[in-house]
Amino acid sequence: MSKNKTRTFGISWWIGLVLFAGMICLMLGDILHRDGVIGSKTAVLVMGTDAGFKPFEYIDNNQVVGFDVDLAREIAKSLGKDLKVEDMSFDGLLSALDSGQIDMVAAGMTVTPERAKNCVVF
């Protein structure tokens, strides 16, 4: 192989390596962004609940309070976010979670085969 061809091969190899490494970095950034590790767009964690199950969640002075709210507030704090509580019908909690209207549900909810099939974590 001539000296010129060897040099061209070496340069091509380095360009390919840099492009490959760049694509890996872009894919890693996309994965981390989707998982919320980097670039989180919101500083608020939205919890959905049906505030009628004292002492876990109930309304006191026009505010939803209780054990589940305190627990969700600590979860939000550990994520570096503020907590927003959405009081809604119990029947609408899982559909609101599915649609992205809320980020989490904290309510007296039991495991059923249908809920387990839909990958709801309890």
Automatic annotation (TrEMBL):
Main location: other
Alphabetic keyword roster: Membrane, Signal, Transmembrane, Transmembrane helix
Cellular component, GO annotation: cell envelope
InterPro entries linked to this entry: SBP_3_CS, Solute-binding_3/MltF_N
Start and end residues of each Solute-binding protein family 3/N-terminal domain: 45-118
Stored PROSITE patterns: SBP_BACTERIAL_3
TM region positions: 12-32
UniProt-annotated location(s): Cell envelope
PANTHER family reported for this sequence: ARGININE-BINDING EXTRACELLULAR PROTEIN ARTP, MEMBRANE-BOUND LYTIC MUREIN TRANSGLYCOSYLASE F
Family to which the UniProt record says this protein belongs: Belongs to the bacterial solute-binding protein 3 family.
Protein name per its UniProtKB record: Transporter substrate-binding domain-containing protein
Natural source organism: Candidatus Minimicrobia naudis
